[in-house]
Amino acid sequence: MEAHELIKWGLIIGIPLLVLILYKFILRVFAGVVIVPEDRIGLVTKKFVLFGKQQLPEGRIVATDGEAGFQAQTLPPGMYFGKWIWQYDITFQPFIIIPTGQLGLILAKDGAELETGSILGRKVNCDSYQDAVAFLKNGGRKGRQTAIIAPGSYRINTFLFSVEMTDMTSIPDNAVGVVTTQEGKPLEEGQIAGKIIEGHNKFQDVDIFMNNGGYKGLQEQVILAGTYFLNPWFTKVEMVSMTEIAIGHVGVVISYVGGDGVDLSGIEFKHGNIVAKGSKGVWAEPLGPGKYPINPFIMKVELVPTTNLVLNWANARSESHQLDKHLSTITVRSKDGFPFNLDVSQIIHIPTTEAPKVIARFGNMNNLVSQVLEPTIGNYFRNSAQDSDVIAFLGTRKERQESARMHIGKVLDQYNVNGVDTLIGDIVPPESLMKTLTDRKIAEEQKVTYETEMKAQETRQTLEKETAIADIQKEIVKADQGVLIAERIADASVKKATGEANSVRLQSTAEADRLRLLANGDAEKIRVLAKANAEQIELLAKANAEQISLTGNAEAERILAIGKSNAESYKLSVEAMGGNNFTQLKVMEAIGAQNIKIMPDILIGGGSDGANGPISGLLGLKLLEEIAKKKDAEQQN
């Protein structure tokens, strides 16, 4: 293919392609046509003016009436004619997009001057700043604007407005947003915060706030948990925790804002005003347990325990409320000059109705402790210790504790506080005195120990004595039984002797009758002889009786001596038996042992008439001799 054909085809293809590519430029140059894309707006700069007003008014930078310069009117997406390239400069500007979670702050580069004392331009009707002409003609002011733009897309003329994006204001749970405004009326004299204004939707509508008379500065109203479209050029938000009042406490509110209320405390209370809720001062109605959105810059909430509160005057112990963290063990001096330490615990109770008076009087609980409780309790125990020595103080601890409770309770009543109880803890006397007391106590305990040991020895002696008595009790019983047996034997011997005597008497009587019959004539002599024999026998019996008596006495003494050697109880038993009975027992034993006959086997007597008297007597004597010989022979055998 030849060169000229190549050029031909190049022109055929290239010219349409070039036209297709450069059609906007061609239309712009040769027809004054401007095509604005769908995602853009056209910012117009007019280079010169052929007819009409030529220059902008002094101080203006954006034209609203066709003057040369930056034009307020923008070109929305579309096609426009007559925008010749030599007269107009068209800049395509992307839409302003405010993402979710943010807001747009507007800074106007042109407009009326701000009012004196103002830092923000008030809102005007300008379609969220998309109509620059309306903004300028409706009195829009240059500078930062009160209104903001919410998330979305906006056709904003950046020749006139600058848009700054910022995050929305988020208040977390259990928090409170304290608001300080940068615009509004000055605060009234004597006020530290602006009064609550209605209708501005939590400070999101700045213009309503200002139109309704909002004040500049700290605001009484707070904002709660949530997300807000707050203009940071208008509001400064400081987040603080909600005021929490625990169970067992009340919150006494001290308000620094509000009107001067009527004092509700009564004429007897002269330590500050107690006012109704909403007034300036100490509120008469405390807050119960819970969470409250309190603005801590205009109100102060003092927590007051309504349960029993324990305060310790001790170096090593402090309660969780920490009201007693600065209290320490009390050092006192006794009457005898000894210093010693003691720990004290005070239990108090503040009724709910009395809590505002306590706070009005002292300001807070720490002041109550330092200004009343600490000096009252410390001075009481110092004064009390000076009236007694250390030993007496230790010995009367219970009484002094009760006295302290009554005295301190009366004092606390004057301060609207109930004194529940006063308890004395450890008492630490001087070491030297403690040694003396310890030695004394040891000596006393040793004395008690010795006395106890002595009593134990006495008890042991008694035990051994009783044991010995118990050991010989067997012998005593044996002796008693021996005495009883002896008595029984003596009784038996007496009865036996009596029976034998009766038998002998009967036999003698029978024999006498027989002999009297045999003698028959010599009865008188026999009777005389028998009488003589009877007297002889009686004398012999008396002699034997005396001998037996003496023998019995000797035997009794021997038995008594034996009884004494064996056991004293044996002696008493012998004495209880009686001497005569015992003598009779021994006499009968002697009679039985010696075979002594009380009556003769043969009674010899004479006849009554005296006949054959001598012969009968001789025969009788002879008969007696034979009988005696026969008895001796039997005994020898």
What is the CATH homology-level superfamily of the largest domain? Band 7 domain
CATH class of the largest domain: Alpha Beta
Span between termini: 206 Å
Number of DSSP-assigned strands = 26
Apparent shape: rod-shaped
| Residue share in β-strands | 15-25%
* Neighbour order of strands in the largest sheet: 3-4-2-6
CATH architecture of the largest domain, by name, is: 2-Layer Sandwich
Biggest β-sheet, characterized? 4 strands, mixed
Oligomeric state of shown chains: single chain
Determine the mean pLDDT. 81
> How much helical structure, as a percent, in the residues?
40-55%
* Number of helices, counting only DSSP H or I runs of 4 residues or more: 13
CATH topology of the largest domain: Tetrahydropterin Synthase, Chain A
As a whole number of angstroms, the C-alpha radius of gyration is 72 Å
